[in-house]
């Protein structure tokens, strides 16, 4: 394994540790790195990533310059949906290690100045969860069934689902069970896979259970939670029909009786009180698909959660006009509730942005610099700092995404962004582990590896490292609630934040910049600051006292897209698809 040195820019580790004891509002400008544990690093050689593997690579993340690590689920699970089907919320799945591994990871992360956020999955459990097993055994009308949504079917013999709701993964959102005597019985609700029955959050036992789960992990030292399907916990009274098919296409764009119901906010006010019982500014982040930014803002009012993912920005095309609208609407929506805006380009549920946006690596790099210049908090999905593309040609026999095997659901593309990371240039799994990888890696993966890019000035990895260092060093980057838009030619975004200016060319050709007086401090591609800004290029400028490298400034640091980053696979444009379960 290549041992990489730890670099944290000008922030000493003691300074990072000190912030854990102060009321800093650290999440307002944090860069949070998402780790999908199955695909990050494999310490035991079984072909699947684990917590010990993540722990071994924490120095890399500290050196990258991120502020926190978000871990996708590692709980006990049959893995019907990549761990989002939980059997025990207080246990680590043996595939990933033991509870002691989680505790050691948290301790090591804190020692490196990194905070740790873990996924919590409150909308549904596994169908092998003790509660659901008991619900099946005890039959209709039992107290155990009241913790889930069991209903009699429609039709003469109850042969039809209770309503017309559709699963996000395709097909009906209902599955019929057998009674203990073997006869056909009731139906249960699962907005995702049949192996993921939805909890009924009107039941006090469900609310009590998750309060104890929160405290369990807070006691272990986690700094916060990413709330999976935060918009789905409460269903409309009476479970009315949605009124038609193709409901997935309405996700995040229109009201649905099973998503974004007002009752969820009472739950999150309760959770906020739990978080505030603990020192160190523990936070919660909502994965909430809503019709618009103002509905999203309701999740982050002062007495609810701290952040919400900005899916409206993620779904925006690489177009200056559209991006400006998305930025303005996002900032305008969050300002009245006093919450930071978040920015994200990729995650474990969508096609990687290098592929999704079209334009290949140069556009992906430009989009990254634009995102990191915006006011608020940013999320980086593992491997985007390497410029990884979507792996679009996985063989069918390798697929594991449950939506791939069902009709009319998600496109089954989530496996392509979950291919294990390349750490080394050679080897059976390019340094992921000694036992291969659970999804096949492309032959050219080694050219995109950490080892191939580390220390090479023109690499995508070094571009991210430089940009993240500058976020710490330049006082006008990071937290904020507005930008000053500057005049710019068509296809170009230009905005000022104090002495900092960002220009991003989303057009097809070079663009003349007028009125940008300052020193170039970073560019996403080959550009020295003179002449037109090339297409698919973002440039950062210093226009005041920090120009020329004063006060710790970079003094004209540049990074350019070079051919050594490798061709990867799947560079063509693709849809932004998927919803976490």
From TrEMBL:
Keyword Hydrolase belongs to the record: yes
Gly residues: bias regions: 546-556, 563-575
One protein family per Pfam: Alpha-amylase
InterPro entries: GH (IPR017853), GH13_cat_dom (IPR006047), O16G_dom_2 (IPR045857)
Gene3D superfamilies: Glycosidases, Oligo-1,6-glucosidase, Domain 2
Signal peptide location: none
Molecular-function GO term, any one: hydrolase activity
Keywords of the record: Hydrolase
Annotated region (Disordered), positions in chain: 538-581
Domain Glycosyl hydrolase family 13 catalytic: 34-414
Family designation: Belongs to the glycosyl hydrolase 13 family.
Name of this protein: Glycoside hydrolase family 13 protein
Organism: Streptomyces marispadix
Lineage: Bacteria, Bacillati, Actinomycetota, Actinomycetes, Kitasatosporales
């Amino acid at each position: 394994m290549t041992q990489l040195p730890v670099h944290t820019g000008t922030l000493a580790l003691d300074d990072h540790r000190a912030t854990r004891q102060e009321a800093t509002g650290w999440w307002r400008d944090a860069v949070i790195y998402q780790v999908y544990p199955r695909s990050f690093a494999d310490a035991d050689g079984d072909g699947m990533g684990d917590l010990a593997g993540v722990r071994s690579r924490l120095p890399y993340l500290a050196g990258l310059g991120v502020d926190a690590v978000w871990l996708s689920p590692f709980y006990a699970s049959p893995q019907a949906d990549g761990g989002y089907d939980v059997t025990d919320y207080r246990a680590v799945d043996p595939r990933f290690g033991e509870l002691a591994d989680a505790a050691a990871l948290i301790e090591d992360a804190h020692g490196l100045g990194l905070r740790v956020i873990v996924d919590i999955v409150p909308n549904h459990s596994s169908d092998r969860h003790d509660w659901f097993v008991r619900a099946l055994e005890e039959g209709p009308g039992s107290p155990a069934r009241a913790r889930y949504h069991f209903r009699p079917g429609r039709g003469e013999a109850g042969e039809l689902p209770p309503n017309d709701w559709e699963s996000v993964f395709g097909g009906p959102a209902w599955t019929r069970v057998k009674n203990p005597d073997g006869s056909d019985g009731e139906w249960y609700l699962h907005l995702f896979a049949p192996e993921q029955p939805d909890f009924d959050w009107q039941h006090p036992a469900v609310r009590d259970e998750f309060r104890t789960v929160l405290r369990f992990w807070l006691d272990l030292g986690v700094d916060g939670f990413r709330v999976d399907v935060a918009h789905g916990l409460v269903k409309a009274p009476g479970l009315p029909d949605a009124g038609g098919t193709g409901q997935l296409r309405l996700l995040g764009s229109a009201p649905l009786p099973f998503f974004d119901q007002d009752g969820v906010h009472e739950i999150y006010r309760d959770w906020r009180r739990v978080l505030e019982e603990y020192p160190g500014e523990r936070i919660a982040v909502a994965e909430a698909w809503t019709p618009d930014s103002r509905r999203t803002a309701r999740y982050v009012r002062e007495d609810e959660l701290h952040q919400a993912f900005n899916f409206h920005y993620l779904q925006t095309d690489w177009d200056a006009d559209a991006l400006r609208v998305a930025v303005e609407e996002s900032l305008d929506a969050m300002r009245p509730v006093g919450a930071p805006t978040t920015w994200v380009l990729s995650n474990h549920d969508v096609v990687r942005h290098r592929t999704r946006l079209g334009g290949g690596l140069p556009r992906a790099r430009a989009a990254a610099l634009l995102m990191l210049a915006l006011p608020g908090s940013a999320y980086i999905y593992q491997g985007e700092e390497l410029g990884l593309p979507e792996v679009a040609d996985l063989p069918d026999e390798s697929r594991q995404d449950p939506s791939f095997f069902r009709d009319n659901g998600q496109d089954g593309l989530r496996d392509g962004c979950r291919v294990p990371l390349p750490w080394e240039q050679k080897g059976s799994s390019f340094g992921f582990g000694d036992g291969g990888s659970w999804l096949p890696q492309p032959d050219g993966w080694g050219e995109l590896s950490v080892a191939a890019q580390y220390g090479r000035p023109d690499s995508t990895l070094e571009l991210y490292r430089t940009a993240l260092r500058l976020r710490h060093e330049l006082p006008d980057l990071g937290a904020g609630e507005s930008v000053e838009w500057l005049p710019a030619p068509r296809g170009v975004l230009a905005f000022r934040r104090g002495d900092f200016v960002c220009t991003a060319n989303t057009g097809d050709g070079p663009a003349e910049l007028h009125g940008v007086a300052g020193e170039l401090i970073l560019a996403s591609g080959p550009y020295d600051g003179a002449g037109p800004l090339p297409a698919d290029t973002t440039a950062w400028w210093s226009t005041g006292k920090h120009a020329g490298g004063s006060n710790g400034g970079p003094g004209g640091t540049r990074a350019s897209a070079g051919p050594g980053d490798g061709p990867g696979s799947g560079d063509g444009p693709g849809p932004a698809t998927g919803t976490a379960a």
